[in-house]
Amino acid sequence: MNLFPTNSIQNPLLTKSHKIQDTHITLAHGSGGKAMRDLIDDIFVNTFDNPILSLLEDQATFNLSSLLQQGDRLAFTTDSYVVDPLFFPGSDIGELAINGTVNDLAVSGAKPLYLTCSVIIEEGLPIETLRRIAASMKAAAKNAGVQIVTGDTKVVHRGAADKLFINTAGIGIIPQGVNISARNIQPGDAVIINGELGNHGAAILIARGELALETNIESDCQALYDLVATILNVCPQVHAMRDVTRGGLATVLNEFASSSNIGIRLEEEFIPVREEVKGVCEILGLDPLYLANEGKLVVVAKREDVASILSAMKSHPAGKDACMIGEVITSPPGIVSLKTIFGAERIVDMLVGEQLPRIC
């Protein structure tokens, strides 16, 4: 790797029978020599196997004419994943790395196509852990309909990182006629969410074992492109979409309000939050509006389109709990407010600091 360095030994040494004998990562696995090549072949190339990756070039190449048949604009994004712990209820860092980047593409209206995978591995990481995470990435990529086509591998000294960091970048194609941007938001628009907030943040917190809590909360980590396609099928003129990750719903809506110079008013009674998540937040003094999610998106669209959008979303497993939670208002511009269940109104600011570090 650049996925795979071209100055290393080339095919035909790439075979599925190549198995590394080490049980843990050593510095030799990042040296650029045979140990590194064996690691890459065994863990990554054989797992992510596809026609583009199998060429083992320093880059992935694509036929532009075939891409242009799918749309007229390219969407490109990148994200890094440093979640602690690597495995948590409902998901793991591998699935998270695929779905997080797929979702960043999807909320632009793009069909995700190709991803890169770069890993920074700490010396001493069990090989079996890396193998398990690669298998999780393969399954997530297959489910999302994308291919991992190139990447990079680095190994750092013990103590120089925390087990494993992953970066994924992705490209997708935006169909003609789709123009999704926060700058499209208009007063009178409706704000819609596809389900319960805060499950991912709460699951990570509990998985760290710092609290004596027992719950069945699992991360909501999932790919959202299929849900986005379902929405655009009934309403291609959606004004804005964003996946709700770090900083939670409050941060996303503040970004929307600032970009479009409008206000947003939320109705607390309509915002879906599991009772278990509310309980965790009450114990720790957290606000579920700021908790991270990995399978939630917020949609802003014309009020007259709400019924058709909600009907479409509810027909999809990732949107079965979709609901309208607020509206776009003219004044005060740049401000997000919340009408509480008691009838009062408070300002919902942008998150300051980090409620939970290493969440994704």
Estimated structural class: alpha+beta
CATH-assigned homologous superfamily of the largest domain: PurM-like C-terminal domain
Helix content: 25-40%
Apparent shape: globular
Total count of strands? 13
Radius of gyration: 22 Å
CATH class term of the largest domain: Alpha Beta
Strands side by side in the biggest sheet: 8-10-7-11-9-12-13
CATH architectural type of the largest domain: Alpha-Beta Complex
* Poorly predicted runs: 3-15
Give the termini distance in whole angstroms.
24 Å
SSE pattern, N- to C-terminal: HHEEEHEHEEEHHEHEHEHEEE
User: Proportion of β residues?
Assistant: 15-25%
CATH topology of the largest domain: Phosphoribosyl-aminoimidazole Synthetase, Chain A, domain 2
Account of the protein in words:
It is globular and about 65 Å long. The chain has two domains: 148 residues, PurM-like, N-terminal domain (60s Ribosomal Protein L30, Chain: A); 166 residues, PurM-like C-terminal domain (Phosphoribosyl-aminoimidazole Synthetase, Chain A, domain 2, Alpha-Beta Complex). A hairpin with a 2-residue loop joins strand 2 and strand 3. The strands form three sheets. A seven-stranded mixed β-sheet has the order 8-10-7-11-9-12-13. The protein has a four-stranded mixed β-sheet with strand order 1-6-4-5. It has nine helices and 13 strands. The N terminus is likely disordered. Helices cover 29% and strands 22% of the residues. Helix 1 runs parallel beside helix 4. The chain is of the alpha+beta class.
